[in-house]
Write a structure and sequence with these properties.
single chain, about 325 residues, alpha+beta, Pseudouridine synthase, Archaeosine Trna-guanine Transglycosylase, Chain: A, domain 4, ten-stranded mixed beta sheet, five-stranded mixed beta sheet, 8 helices, about 20% helix, disordered N terminus
């Protein structure tokens, strides 16, 4: 009996068609400035945007609590390599405080701990604010994602376990009173990364002798981006695929504050291979590197050499 002939091999140069064929997706690279709505987690917003863009790799640059809204920069593809520079950047918030009421979480999602009368005047509130300017120490809240022995603090808090937390130094660059109709107070806060606005609200309340908690929080700026540049999830969903991708900013926008270095073709090729290249510069430190109009990544300028630090896998135009 003759053996059946084997099925012919498909040419690797010819795409398969029909059911079961793999569809090649164009890599999605860039930064989306999202206006996160109240009521969802930052990760839920990220996953929704990732699905709408049909992206494979994505990450955010600092979470917003579900009760908070505002600017949430999202990174896709190669842009995720530079997300830490936004994560570590200064932030700006519009914070609404409710004086006289403290909660277990320092925000509207917690249970009320105590209610006190509010006698503070506008002048007294303005007099307290300078105490919280500049470098200050904060004790992180128990209801936070900081880890203790591999578990987030909020898990201990939900179990009724209090963990001792060392204070952390943060910087408040601006703290302005925008509205003042006690017990409602609205503040404009510009601060370093890692600042807990919930804790700031609680500490201001204690300084006034009545306690306080956050009732609303909006992030209005992060790094060099502002909320008026952001797009809502509903607006993103209303666009077609091409228009959604057109809303992505190039990855180098996240590091626009760094000095720029231009390389020729040979120098760029060497750097992309992991080799350092000679470069005369009087300003040592981190720089963003380009070959023509294409962003290559980041490199360190040190002792007349340009040393690769974080490079992208594909050139961005």
């Amino acid at each position: 009996m003759r053996k059946p002939m084997a099925a012919p091999l498909l040419s690797p140069t010819l795409p398969q068609t029909g059911e079961g064929a793999k569809v090649m997706r164009k890599p999605i690279n860039g930064v989306l400035l999202l206006d996160k709505p109240v009521g969802i987690t930052s990760n839920a917003a990220l996953q929704k945007a990732k699905w709408l863009l049909n992206a494979r790799k994505a990450g955010h640059t600092g979470t917003l609590d579900p009760f908070a809204d505002g600017l949430l920069p999202l990174c896709f593809g190669e842009a995720t390599k530079f997300s830490s520079y936004l994560l570590e950047s200064d932030k700006r918030y519009r914070a609404v405080l409710r004086l006289g009421v403290t909660t277990t979480t320092g925000d509207p999602e917690g249970e009320i701990l105590a209610t006190r009368e509010v006698h503070a005047s506008r002048a007294e509130i303005e007099a307290v604010l300078p105490r919280f300017m500049g470098e200050i120490e904060q004790i992180p809240p128990m209801h936070s994602a900081l880890k203790h022995q591999g578990r987030p603090l909020y898990e201990y808090a939900r179990a009724g376990i209090e963990i001792e937390r060392p204070p952390r130094r943060v910087k408040i660059s601006a703290l302005d009173l925008i509205e003042c109709e006690p017990p409602r107070v609205v503040l404009d806060v510009q601060c370093s990364a890692g600042t807990y606005i919930r804790t700031l609200a609680q500490d201001i309340g204690e300084a006034l002798g009545c306690g306080a908690h956050l009732t609303a929080l909006t992030r209005t700026a992060a790094g060099g981006f502002t909320l008026d540049q952001a797009l809502s999830l509903a607006s993103l969903e209303a666009l077609d695929a091409a228009a959604r991708q057109a809303k992505l900013l190039p990855a180098d926008r996240m590091v626009a504050h760094l000095p720029m270095v231009q390389l020729d073709t040979a120098e760029a090729g060497a750097l992309c291979q992991g080799r350092s290249v000679a470069h005369a510069s009087v300003l040592p430190g981190l720089a963003r590197v380009y070959a023509g109009s294409s962003f290559i990544g980041l490199a360190d300028l040190d002792d007349g050499r340009l040393i690769p630090r974080r490079l992208i896998a594909t050139q961005q135009t």
